[in-house]
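can u do me a favor
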């Protein structure tokens, strides 16, 4: 079974709103073995939408549209469908009564424009919307099913769940797509690709083929492995050895194979070793601590954190010697180390982290350009310090610095 998705709404063609519904829809369709062959964003334009639908009907099994079901003039989905299929629009009295009742229940009078929402292309079935006035519609035309859902995600998502459960899953093939995610950090994308490509190229010709996609973002890379199979057990037989082989090829740079974030992995390692962590941040401004504390239960290992931006704060709060800053500069390995050791000592924590760098856009020098970040991790057995040169704007430098600091902590804990 294959599908196309149409996100309807002129606001989705501006720089201010993005179509996120199609990601949710793709995920749910894939879960019943239905692949998405195309998706489109189209404005509130009855002609353009009608043309698009007329072209898609007959060429895919399912068309899922979201948006444009509201009561106003610019909500054109019903009309475009009626035109594309050459169907009349009928008033559905039951829908009109239901909408009226929703307004009455809130002590409001239904505006006459809301009657538009009761217009239904002849032959369509109504899909209940428990969270809004716009009902959805289900329409079969030859081989193709058209599913029309409202745009607001909180209305769309439960209705989609019901459509998948009650109507689409029984039509779908008996296979489903199963996915595994391997998170990698500390290696450039090209290096990950070079190591893994010869391995996963072989899997495409297996009885249950495994397909791999690389997604790279700042300092973190994800390998997505998918297999289409008739059961989880069958998918596991193809995916388990594939994940194991990639894990071996990438070694310690694999952060997780079960979807956990690096901050969650660091948390699990700290908790398992009954260790605590204290953090001293300069250029990351609290981002590292924020990410560590995004993990539920982090209070069992995060002891404290200090954001020490000025030299004075590093001296006063972290006992960094003034002479050290004068000799090496605030962005230097000796200062990062003194920050990590200082916060660790004052917290009596097992692990101390110090991050100091130049996030930019100003403040760079020829020998310490923007993006230079010194990171130190201190434990009872000593400290490890490293200087990194990150590329990108201020936000990207901060983000990569936080990820890299988390990775240094992870590696220290793994290596004992
Ligand atoms: P309503 O009755 O609420 O008007 P509708 O079906 O007409 O329902 P739209 O008016 O098209 O929906 O969209 C309402 C809001 O829903 C949009 O402003 C936007 O915030 C959100 N929305 C619409 N489509 C999408 C989408 N594809 N992805 C994410 N959000 C969306």
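np, heres the sequence
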């Amino acid at each position: 079974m294959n599908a196309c998705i149409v996100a309807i709404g002129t606001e989705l063609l501006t720089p201010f709103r993005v179509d996120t519904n199609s990601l949710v829809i793709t995920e749910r369709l894939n879960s019943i073995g239905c692949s998405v062959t195309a998706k489109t964003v189209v404005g509130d334009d009855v002609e353009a939408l009608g043309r698009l639908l007329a072209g898609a009907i007959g060429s895919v099994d399912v068309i899922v549209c979201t948006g444009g079901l509201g009561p106003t003039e610019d909500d054109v989905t019903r009309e475009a469908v009626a035109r594309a299929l050459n169907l009349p629009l009928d008033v559905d009295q039951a829908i009109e009564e239901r909408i009226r009742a929703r307004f009455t229940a809130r002590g409001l009078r239904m505006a006459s424009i809301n009657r538009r929402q009761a217009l239904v292309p002849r032959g369509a079935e109504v899909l209940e919307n428990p969270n809004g006035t716009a009902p959805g519609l289900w329409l079969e035309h030859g081989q193709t099913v058209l599913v029309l859902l409202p745009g607001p995600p909180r209305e769309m998502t439960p209705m989609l769940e019901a459509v998948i459960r009650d109507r689409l899953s029984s039509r779908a093939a008996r296979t489903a797509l199963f996915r595994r995610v391997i998170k990698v950090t500390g290696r450039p994308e090209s290096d990950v690709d070079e190591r893994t490509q010869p391995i996963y190229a072989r899997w495409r010709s297996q009885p249950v083929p495994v397909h791999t996609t690389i997604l790279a973002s700042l300092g973190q890379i994800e390998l997505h492995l998918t297999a289409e199979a008739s059961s989880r057990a069958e998918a596991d037989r193809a995916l388990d050895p594939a994940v194991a082989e990639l894990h071996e090829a990438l070694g310690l740079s694999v952060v997780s194979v079960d979807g956990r974030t690096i901050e969650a992995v660091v948390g699990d390692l700290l908790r398992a070793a009954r260790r605590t962590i204290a953090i001293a941040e300069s250029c990351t401004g609290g981002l590292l601590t924020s990410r560590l504390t995004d993990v539920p239960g982090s209070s069992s290992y995060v002891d404290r954190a200090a954001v020490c931006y000025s030299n004075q704060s590093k001296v006063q709060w972290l006992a960094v010697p003034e002479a050290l800053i004068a000799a090496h500069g605030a962005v230097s390995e000796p200062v990062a180390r003194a920050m990590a050791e200082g916060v660790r000592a004052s917290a009596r924590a097992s692990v101390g982290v110090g991050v100091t760098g130049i996030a930019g856009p100003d403040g760079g020098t020829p020998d310490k350009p923007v993006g230079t970040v010194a990171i130190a991790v201190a434990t009872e057995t000593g400290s490890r310090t490293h200087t990194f040169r990150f590329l990108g704007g201020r936000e990207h430098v901060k983000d990569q610095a936080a990820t890299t600091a988390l990775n240094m902590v992870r590696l220290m804990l793994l290596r004992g």
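The radius of gyration is 28 Å. hope that helps!!
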